[in-house]
Write a structure and sequence with these properties.
Number of strands: 18
Helix content: 10-25%
Oligomer: single chain
Distance between the termini: 19 Å
CATH class: Mainly Beta
Protein name: Porin domain-containing protein
Shape: globular
CATH superfamily: Porin
Organism: Alteromonas confluentis
Structural class: mainly beta
Number of domains: 1
């Protein structure tokens, strides 16, 4: 009802003023995880349609021939995902080569970051979580993006630079964090030639601070008790830099795609991350079949709880507080193999089916959210998904 109320006056304006254009997208996705001991991407051992089903509406208004205003409203079926204004920005296009955008924007670090919510735009139901589900990358930011496109004969080159900040809550395998990222910036270079695309990107944050329930209280108590090293380990305050490399080939018969990310950080629990995926697919007319291998690897600095037990009740409290907080931090080491089928059964609509074989590691979170009394879970499961995607 709210959406209808918001769009009705705009629709009448569109009929009177051709400078306003409307578009939208939707997806209805069902999923089932074959274990009763954990969640993965919100799925568990019962069929649900709520985790990834959504609808989005976009309006573009041409203020002048060179200036336009764009906004996107996103509505999730799951209350755990934030619905609302996904982006709103002013765009200045002085010519076909240059573009400047200012406002709330999507962070353009990965190949499909700009269209992550538009499932029709990519082959899978779920892009590899090892990269696209990472809590290290923020989906949007407030700032500016400058883009320049040119070609040298048949080589087409796209260069972007962005700068801004991010402040919002994120979920990392069930743990809630509030993130404040200042001086967030990076660049992207894409080179396209004869079906090949080579892509390089950077994502840097000079000042990042994260807070979670109990962490600041714990680090303060550790400092006061003389355990400064432990306090520093759990302080999420520093800088992060990530470098992404991608390669794609699409011959209209075969498609190959791969992306790799390397993350370094002064924040101990975010350092030492190397994740990647590789996809190979084949087109058969309106059908497409793909196999994707993805891997998340995180080499954390060795952690030892050095607080002695049984000496003082207050030290015991600190010891168990550390163990509790440490268990909340994700240790995402996960291998997966995903089989995907896509059928474009009519223009602008596609049916997809997908099965992912998840192989994590004991003692790691492996991108799972464990249920109560699931200490014996071996971090292995199969995720089944199917859905319909469309754009309008």
């Amino acid at each position: 009802m709210v959406v209808t109320t918001m769009l009705t006056p705009c629709a009448s304006m569109a009929s009177e003023d051709s400078s306003i254009e409307f578009s939208g997208f939707a997806r209805v996705v069902a999923g089932y995880l074959d274990t009763d001991q954990a969640y993965f991407e919100g799925y568990e051992d019962e069929l649900t349609f709520t985790e990834k089903s959504l609808v989005g509406f976009q309006a573009d208004y041409a203020v002048t021939d060179e200036i336009s205003l764009s906004g996107q409203l996103l509505l999730h079926s799951d209350s755990q995902h934030q619905s609302g204004l996904e982006w709103l920005y002013l765009s200045y296009d002085p010519n076909p080569d240059w573009q400047l955008k200012v406002g709330r924007l999507r962070t353009p670090y990965l190949k499909y970051s700009d269209v992550f919510d538009v499932g029709y735009a990519y082959p899978w139901i779920s892009p590899p979580r090892q990269l696209y589900g990472s809590y290290l990358f923020f989906p949007r930011y407030e700032g500016a993006n400058l883009r320049y496109r040119f070609n040298i004969d048949q080589v087409y080159i796209d260069v972007e630079a962005y700068y801004g900040e991010f402040s919002d809550d994120i979920d990392a395998n069930g743990a809630k964090f509030h993130i404040d990222a200042n001086d967030m910036y990076g660049g992207i270079v894409e080179v396209n030639y004869n079906g090949w695309q080579l892509r390089g990107a950077s994502f840097l944050v000079d000042k990042i601070r994260a807070g979670a329930e109990g962490i600041e209280t714990l680090t303060s108590a550790l400092d006061q008790a003389g355990f400064a090293d432990l306090a520093n380990f759990f302080t999420i305050n520093g800088s992060t830099e990530a470098y992404i490399f991608g390669l794609t080939y699409d011959s209209l018969d075969w498609v190959l795609s791969a992306e790799y990310v390397d993350v370094a950080s002064t924040i101990t629990i975010l350092a030492g991350i190397e994740n990647y995926y590789f996809t190979v697919g084949r087109y058969f007319g309106e059908y497409q079949f793909l196999v994707t291998y993805a891997k998340a690897n995180q080499e954390l600095t060795f952690f030892e709880n050095t607080i002695p037990l049984g000496v003082d009740p207050r030290l015991d409290q600190l010891y168990f507080g550390i163990e509790e907080v440490n268990s909340q931090f994700p240790t995402d080491e996960l291998n997966s193999v995903t089989l995907t089928g896509r059928w474009d059964f009519r223009p602008n609509m596609a049916f997809k089916a997908e099965v992912s074989f998840l192989n994590g590691y004991n003692g790691k979170s492996s991108m799972f959210e464990l249920k109560a009394d699931a200490e014996g879970f071996d971090r292995k499961a199969v995720l089944y998904q199917f859905g319909v995607e469309w754009v309008f």
